[in-house]
Amino acid sequence: MAQPGNPWLAPIYLPGSEPYPPGTTEEEKEGYRQMQRWTKVGGDFMHYCPTKVAMAGGMGFALGGFVSLMGATFALDDPLSRANQQLTTGGKTMAVVKDMGRNMLSQGRGFAKVGALYSGYECVIEGYRAKNDHWNGIAGGFCAGATLARKSGPWGCLLGGLGFAAFSAVIDLYMRKVPTEEP
Q1: What is this structure's pTM?
Q2: Which percentage of the chain shows pLDDT scores above 70?
Q3: Per-residue pLDDT tens for 102-133?
Q4: Please, what sign has the CA dihedral across residues 48, 142, 144, 105?
Q5: DSSP label at 130?
């Protein structure tokens, strides 16, 4: 339904009264309405803080495991560590696989903790401020850095928070910069 009296305005339709293409059956219309409902639910689901924290933790765990796996591939043929010379090839392989798995789990948990803390703090601050800008990431980075350094005392918390906030600011400002247009 177009705005009466002004053909230049875009038409505004109430939800559920949008026009359908000619020849659309009632079954197709119901399918379209159901698709719109699920699209809205799925889009809203991604904006909840628990969802963001779980995704950041899961992706951090996967990234930490991958980084550990890559590091382990470069450390396998260390000529200075010849401690287990008496093991068979199968025994050496099992020892290497167990060590890699242990390191992947440890590194993955560390990355998951960092990602979940940062994402959680940033999401809570964004919800409190009701703004989406770089200050949320900086404040979230400070809180996450201070939390991760909590066992090293007040100065450690301050320096950890400042370091994480500075790193977060650099990354966030880089990600939010306007791309240059090249002809």
Answers
A1: 0.71
A2: 87
A3: 889 999 999 999 999 999 999 999 999 888 88
A4: positive
A5: T
